[in-house]
Amino acid sequence: MITFDSQQQVFNLSNSKISYLFSIEEGGLLSHLYYGPRIRHYHGERRYPRIDRGFSGNLPHSKDRTYSKDDLLQEYSGNNTGDYRLPAITVKGSDGARFTDFRYDSYRIIDGKPALPGLPSSYVKDNDEAQTLEVNLKDATLKLTLTLVYSIYKDRAVVTRNARLQNNSNQPIDIEKIASMQLDLTKHDYDLVYLPGQYALERQTRRVALNQGIFEISSRRDSSSHHMNPFAALVDKDTDEFHGNALGVLLVYSGNHKISIERDQIDQTRLIAGINDFNFSWHLEPGESFQTPEAITVFSTKGLNGMSQIFHHLLRERVARGKFQYADRPIVINNWEATFFDFNDQKLDEVVKEAKPLGIEMFVLDDGWFGHRNDDNSSLGDWFVNKDKVNLKRVAKQTHDAGMKFGLWFEPEMISVDSDLYRKHPDWALAEPGRGSTLSRNQLVLDFSRPEVVDNIFQQMCKILDAVSIDYIKWDCNRNLTEVYSQAVSPDHEGEIAHREILGVYSLMDRLTKRYPNILFEGCSGGGGRFDAGILYYMPQSWPSDDTDAAERLKIQDGTSLVYPISSMSAHVSVSPNQQTGRSISFKTRGDVAMAGVFGYELDLAKLTDDEKQQVKKQIAFYKQHRHLIQYGDFYRLESPFTSNTVAWEFVSPDKSEALLFMFRQQHTNRMEIVNTKMVALDPQRDYSDMTSDQVFGGDELMNVGLYRDPKHVGDYLSEVHYFKEV
Ligand code: DGJ
């Protein structure tokens, strides 16, 4: 998969689908040559053209005015040494200078794909699956070694990247920026597709044309955030859901991130992705090294759906781990939107009593069972049962006796000022003494850069998990960071705290998921504030949004599917009118939207009418029958809510023997449009029976002639679901 042509000085990473090529240019600069569909044989004629460009300086000690770092396509550019575009790395030396100039030193190719210490990353199951190239570069003045790490999988259109910096000098240095990757691309007119959002409206797909200047996708909240997912795709102008090139970049990281895309003076594009340099600095003593998170890059020639497929397969198969990686996920009843903090044993018993006959498989007790928490003003950090309110052991037993699983909510990273933990350890919250702390949801953030703090929460959680039989944990995180300051480190290390906080979160997740391999963990951050590949490494599913309105969920789930697999996306039916938006939508459509994810309910079952209960039974029976296809089949966006009034999603089994088609219409208009939806990825030679209507169609027919929606339907937010089975 990886070769080095010593004559041409070209590194070639190729598999049956893609090639990634770069060369060692004059002066030991690494120059990017190509990333895209597989090149059978690279003949090396595309060395970078040289030109004497005014105001673009040349290499030190060289009289060649045609060779400049300022227009060379580079693999990883330094700072303040001739390339005026954005640097991938900035280091402050002990003399205060901020110059970095890394030149090629050596390389090695290894089978497999090494794990990153303390960080989540994509993995291999055996070493034949991937190869890894490590290229060492040196800054001779600073005596630093920078290792650029590239892995290519045998059968996937994926190249992963990360970087490592080692201080070989006898002076400390401060890293002020260190990206996971840089990708310089030749002159081309790209569109950028990305996933901005906000609380309760996460991952709203946007597409913009890139022009000269810098576009930034970033978070400064020390969370991957509701506001900007750590993902970007560069696509051709004519790329759509099914056609054209799409180059996707995804960070496997849950903290401050930044993906910068700069279109330079001659319309070349530079993409730099990694930890955000905002308020970041890392003090590196002699002999120490720093490891960046991983960036995953994928290349699709089959449009955005093609890109999503590559991400879905990789995230499901080689990022998610553990017992639940491929397990059918249980159908949940969660008490949050039904009771909020207002519950007692009796109310919880009711939930279980109602849920079981409907076919629900797991009861999740949400926020409010610990400390003395009756609203969101207290008790975070006090992970002991509020015995005045609930007998947790009994509720768990009751749930198990009823034949259901039992899940519990935690928010491990947080601390309330009104908590025993804060009273005992006020310095365990992130804060600068003497300065007021910004409150958010009336809570503060624990200093997880301190191992003793992580340890305390670990011990408290173990005490509960060892005493009560728990099958599932919902891991919440309900605020972003401010006053990021640890009272346990010296001033020259304060710039490290945001990243160390995330490393602390990962270490707790790692310890708990290892100690409790039979617990299914679900990530959550005030809805989908931390829906990212880093969390997915520890937790195979997450709660995408606190917005459970089916209308908004169409967009949230569609946007999320751009990168993340359906098996990672929980979706619950809640009450109508919806509590967040006041919108009324039929029980059927609410069910159909939620069924296109990891299904569950989040409402007071006792308040359902008999007719609604019958619908719940039907939905559950249908979901159980098709759960595996939905959670693990190949998912396609046929019509997207961001570009069309109608929405269509298709799930196909890998052997093409069955498929589900979910169709929605957003607003009704008296245009009375007649919409024809064409399916994809079926076998044109096979016939399929529509189990809803008993009609038989050819695969070719479904894909080329298509289906009409039921024209009799009048009203907003209507849905239709068809199940096709090969005959
Ligand atoms: C935010 C979550 O997204 C909700 O589902 C719920 O768990 C609340 N937190 C509880 O505080």
Q: How would you explain this protein's 3D organization?
A:
- By secondary structure, the chain is of the alpha+beta class.
- It folds into 3 domains: 317 residues, Beta-galactosidase, Chain A, domain 5; 301 residues, Aldolase class I (TIM Barrel, Alpha-Beta Barrel), CATH 3.20.20.70; 88 residues, Golgi alpha-mannosidase II (Immunoglobulin-like, Sandwich).
- The strands form 7 sheets. Strands 6, 7, 8, 9, 11, 12, 14, 15, 19 and 20 form a 10-stranded antiparallel sheet that branches.
- A hairpin with a 5-residue loop joins strand 32 and strand 33.
- Helix 3 runs parallel beside helix 4.
- 52% of the residues are buried.
- (2R,3S,4R,5S)-2-(hydroxymethyl)piperidine-3,4,5-triol binds next to loops.
- (2R,3S,4R,5S)-2-(hydroxymethyl)piperidine-3,4,5-triol (DGJ) binds next to loops.
Short description:
The chain has 727 residues and is α+β, with helices and mostly antiparallel strands. 19% of the residues lie in helices and 30% in strands.
